[in-house]
Amino acid sequence: MFFVDTLTFEGLGNRSYLSGGARAAVVVDPPRDIDQLIAAATKRGVRIVYVAETHVHNDYVTGGLELARITGAVYLVPSAAHVSFARTPVADGDTLEVDEGLVLRAIATPGHTPHHTSYVLEEDGRGVAAFTGGSLLIGTVGRPDLVEPRLTEQLARAQHASAHRLADELDDTVPVLPTHGFGSFCSSSQAQGDATTIGKERRANDALILDVDTFVARTLASLEEVPAYYTHMGPINAAGPAPVDLTPPAPADAGQIAERLAAGEWVVDLRNRVAFAEGHVAGTFNFEGDGKLATYLAWLIPWGKPVTLLAETAAQIADAQRELTRVGIDRPAASATGGPASWLREGERAASFPRATFADLAEARRCGAGALVLDVRRDSERAAGHITGSVHIPVHELRLRTDEIPDGTVWVHCAGGMRAAIAASLLDAAGRQVVAVDDGLDAAGYAGLPLTTPRA
Fold it and tell me: Which residues form a coiled coil (predicted)?
């Protein structure tokens, strides 16, 4: 009997897989921190004999090279991928025996990248699982615009063909096990659901329902902004990532925190947004540790800028450090635990700013306060409807566009509160008076705020 164990990385919206039989297994698209895969294999009592990459990833740093080195596994990388390290090239149709009666078959599925390859696990000649990487996802496909703008339409057409090839070659009951698509920006559109099969995708996926021209047009129209750090992921993966070092960062006291802030380094407070708003070290930025930390911190921070992490506990620092290694932020410059009382020098006072709801914002407007509203959602979210008269700067652009915000107190909002908290901390550090709207956007209409919506 075969098995498939799924490792989920919610912060990046990705999954990795350990799959095999009684004695041996293959790992597909491993994360940078490989210790959990080794632990999963140990728990299963299997030896990792293959490590397979579906493509050179653009959204995270792989642990494949290191995992293969440590375990002695064969490292499978698509033959057309340009990499600088020794690996076993895999071409369309190649088969590899994983365990008795279990074979891994490579299927060329270009589209997300030109060299993208999916893998089908076959038990006694019958497909039982399809590891589709960034090809066929749940209700969508991987975005085709991460390699080269001039190739985007060509790759979108290839995605359509690749999806049809998978559907044509596999039975309806075969589980589709993608790497991307669980909140990842590598997905061409955000999919619903947690599990799928070839049959379900045949009935619901645009790539399998629409003709190629309609599919391409819709795909290109739906593409969102690309996180800035993606620029660095492909080259790191092609060069061969170094092993991670997850030992604790150097501790920083209040004086050192102040020195790092004065030097222009980033000091990131990982506490929840309520605690941060109530009191924090002036000049620090709030990226909640239990939010999309890696995605948004890596997106906003100038690449290579030293970062110091602040959190309530050492465990929170360790979790954040692990997540950040997945996007190439390998070693925090320093860290500190506790709270503002221990992070401030003697005589210093904590900074703070108010939080509010959309009802509070509506009341401020009714009282003639003339509240300036800043919407930090993405362009596509804004296009679906917004508070009339609000200023729009997506959170990932805010750091370089604060001079576009008119004078006065800024009421900043997103769709739910997390991105508004990031934006509020950036503005607070820049010396602006800010109110963080910590509320769901649906409440804006109920509060009586005027909304601009698309015409039918």
Answer: none
